[in-house]
Amino acid sequence: NNLLELETKLDGIQNNSLNADSTRVKLFKKQNEKDKLYKEKQKNGQFMGSIPPYGYKLNKEQKGKLEVDEEIEDIVKKIFDLYSNGKGSIDIANYLNSREIPNPSTYRETKYKNKKSSEWNQITILAMLRNEVYIGNTVQNKRRKLSYKSKKIIDNPKEQWITVEDTHKAI
To answer: Is the Cβ–Cβ distance between 16 and 37 less than 8 Å?
Structure first.
Protein backbone atom coordinates (compact mmCIF):
# COMPACT_ATOMS: atom_id res chain seq x y z
CA ASN A 1 0.00 0.00 0.00
CA ASN A 2 2.82 2.44 0.89
CA LEU A 3 4.64 1.46 -2.31
CA LEU A 4 1.52 2.22 -4.38
CA GLU A 5 1.17 5.66 -2.72
CA LEU A 6 4.85 6.41 -3.38
CA GLU A 7 4.52 5.42 -7.06
CA THR A 8 1.43 7.62 -7.40
CA LYS A 9 3.27 10.60 -5.90
CA LEU A 10 6.27 10.03 -8.18
CA ASP A 11 4.00 9.87 -11.24
CA GLY A 12 2.44 13.19 -10.20
CA ILE A 13 5.86 14.80 -9.75
CA GLN A 14 7.03 13.55 -13.16
CA ASN A 15 3.85 14.81 -14.86
CA ASN A 16 4.25 18.26 -13.23
CA SER A 17 7.89 18.34 -14.33
CA LEU A 18 6.96 17.42 -17.90
CA ASN A 19 4.22 20.07 -17.95
CA ALA A 20 6.69 22.70 -16.67
CA ASP A 21 9.23 21.70 -19.36
CA SER A 22 6.53 21.87 -22.03
CA THR A 23 5.48 25.34 -20.82
CA ARG A 24 9.08 26.58 -20.88
CA VAL A 25 9.54 25.28 -24.42
CA LYS A 26 6.32 27.01 -25.56
CA LEU A 27 7.40 30.29 -23.95
CA PHE A 28 10.85 30.05 -25.55
CA LYS A 29 9.34 29.42 -28.99
CA LYS A 30 6.88 32.29 -28.57
CA GLN A 31 9.68 34.71 -27.57
CA ASN A 32 11.81 33.49 -30.47
CA GLU A 33 8.97 34.26 -32.90
CA LYS A 34 8.58 37.75 -31.41
CA ASP A 35 12.33 38.35 -31.80
CA LYS A 36 12.21 37.28 -35.47
CA LEU A 37 9.25 39.59 -36.15
CA TYR A 38 11.03 42.47 -34.39
CA LYS A 39 14.20 41.97 -36.48
CA GLU A 40 12.11 41.73 -39.66
CA LYS A 41 10.49 45.08 -38.89
CA GLN A 42 13.94 46.59 -38.28
CA LYS A 43 15.17 45.24 -41.63
CA ASN A 44 12.16 46.84 -43.30
CA GLY A 45 13.23 50.22 -41.88
CA GLN A 46 10.58 50.60 -39.19
CA PHE A 47 11.74 52.60 -36.20
CA MET A 48 11.30 50.22 -33.26
CA GLY A 49 12.36 52.53 -30.44
CA SER A 50 9.93 54.12 -28.04
CA ILE A 51 11.54 57.58 -28.15
CA PRO A 52 12.41 59.07 -31.54
CA PRO A 53 15.71 60.91 -32.06
CA TYR A 54 15.78 64.66 -31.34
CA GLY A 55 14.25 66.48 -34.28
CA TYR A 56 11.86 63.67 -35.16
CA LYS A 57 8.52 62.38 -33.95
CA LEU A 58 6.58 59.21 -34.62
CA ASN A 59 4.06 59.31 -37.44
CA LYS A 60 0.58 58.80 -36.01
CA GLU A 61 -0.79 57.04 -39.12
CA GLN A 62 2.19 54.82 -39.98
CA LYS A 63 3.53 52.79 -37.08
CA GLY A 64 7.34 52.78 -36.96
CA LYS A 65 7.70 55.72 -39.37
CA LEU A 66 9.66 58.82 -38.35
CA GLU A 67 8.69 62.29 -39.44
CA VAL A 68 10.37 65.65 -38.89
CA ASP A 69 9.33 67.51 -35.74
CA GLU A 70 8.84 70.99 -37.21
CA GLU A 71 8.96 72.51 -33.73
CA ILE A 72 12.70 71.81 -33.42
CA GLU A 73 13.80 71.10 -36.99
CA ASP A 74 15.61 74.46 -37.20
CA ILE A 75 17.65 73.67 -34.07
CA VAL A 76 18.96 70.46 -35.64
CA LYS A 77 19.76 72.32 -38.86
CA LYS A 78 21.60 74.99 -36.85
CA ILE A 79 23.73 72.34 -35.08
CA PHE A 80 24.85 70.88 -38.41
CA ASP A 81 25.32 74.35 -39.92
CA LEU A 82 27.55 75.46 -37.04
CA TYR A 83 29.58 72.25 -37.32
CA SER A 84 30.00 72.57 -41.09
CA ASN A 85 31.24 76.13 -40.52
CA GLY A 86 34.04 74.93 -38.26
CA LYS A 87 32.49 75.12 -34.80
CA GLY A 88 33.35 72.30 -32.40
CA SER A 89 30.91 70.40 -30.23
CA ILE A 90 31.73 72.46 -27.11
CA ASP A 91 31.16 75.73 -29.00
CA ILE A 92 27.86 74.41 -30.35
CA ALA A 93 26.73 73.33 -26.86
CA ASN A 94 27.68 76.77 -25.47
CA TYR A 95 25.77 78.48 -28.30
CA LEU A 96 22.61 76.47 -27.60
CA ASN A 97 22.89 76.90 -23.82
CA SER A 98 23.40 80.68 -24.12
CA ARG A 99 20.10 80.84 -25.99
CA GLU A 100 18.42 78.54 -23.44
CA ILE A 101 17.44 76.01 -26.09
CA PRO A 102 16.26 72.81 -24.37
CA ASN A 103 18.50 69.79 -24.90
CA PRO A 104 16.91 66.52 -26.18
CA SER A 105 15.99 65.05 -22.80
CA THR A 106 14.65 68.37 -21.51
CA TYR A 107 12.65 68.87 -24.70
CA ARG A 108 10.95 65.47 -24.24
CA GLU A 109 10.24 66.19 -20.56
CA THR A 110 9.00 69.77 -20.97
CA LYS A 111 6.90 68.90 -23.98
CA TYR A 112 4.92 66.43 -21.89
CA LYS A 113 5.56 67.22 -18.21
CA ASN A 114 6.72 70.84 -17.85
CA LYS A 115 9.99 70.04 -16.07
CA LYS A 116 13.04 72.24 -15.54
CA SER A 117 15.66 72.60 -18.25
CA SER A 118 19.13 71.07 -18.31
CA GLU A 119 22.02 72.02 -20.57
CA TRP A 120 23.49 70.77 -23.82
CA ASN A 121 26.87 69.07 -23.65
CA GLN A 122 29.63 67.90 -25.96
CA ILE A 123 28.55 64.25 -25.86
CA THR A 124 24.99 65.02 -26.99
CA ILE A 125 26.25 67.18 -29.87
CA LEU A 126 28.77 64.54 -31.02
CA ALA A 127 26.14 61.80 -30.85
CA MET A 128 23.82 63.87 -33.06
CA LEU A 129 26.58 64.68 -35.56
CA ARG A 130 27.40 60.96 -35.89
CA ASN A 131 23.80 59.73 -36.08
CA GLU A 132 22.74 58.64 -39.58
CA VAL A 133 19.10 59.35 -38.75
CA TYR A 134 19.73 62.98 -39.75
CA ILE A 135 20.56 61.93 -43.34
CA GLY A 136 17.39 59.83 -43.57
CA ASN A 137 18.69 56.42 -42.53
CA THR A 138 17.38 54.19 -39.75
CA VAL A 139 20.14 52.39 -37.84
CA GLN A 140 19.03 49.88 -35.22
CA ASN A 141 20.31 46.89 -33.27
CA LYS A 142 23.27 48.94 -32.01
CA ARG A 143 22.84 47.64 -28.47
CA ARG A 144 21.21 44.76 -26.69
CA LYS A 145 20.47 43.59 -23.19
CA LEU A 146 23.05 41.19 -21.81
CA SER A 147 20.23 38.81 -20.88
CA TYR A 148 16.57 38.96 -20.06
CA LYS A 149 17.52 38.71 -16.37
CA SER A 150 19.83 41.72 -16.48
CA LYS A 151 19.31 45.43 -17.15
CA LYS A 152 22.88 45.74 -18.44
CA ILE A 153 23.08 46.90 -22.05
CA ILE A 154 26.06 46.13 -24.27
CA ASP A 155 27.08 47.47 -27.68
CA ASN A 156 26.72 45.15 -30.66
CA PRO A 157 29.55 45.00 -33.20
CA LYS A 158 28.94 47.28 -36.19
CA GLU A 159 28.46 44.21 -38.43
CA GLN A 160 25.28 43.40 -36.48
CA TRP A 161 23.74 46.84 -36.86
CA ILE A 162 20.69 47.01 -39.11
CA THR A 163 20.90 50.03 -41.42
CA VAL A 164 18.13 50.91 -43.86
CA GLU A 165 18.68 53.95 -46.06
CA ASP A 166 16.13 56.61 -47.02
CA THR A 167 13.43 55.59 -44.54
CA HIS A 168 12.39 59.15 -43.70
CA LYS A 169 13.09 62.79 -44.54
CA ALA A 170 16.59 63.99 -43.68
CA ILE A 171 17.03 67.17 -41.68
So the answer is: no
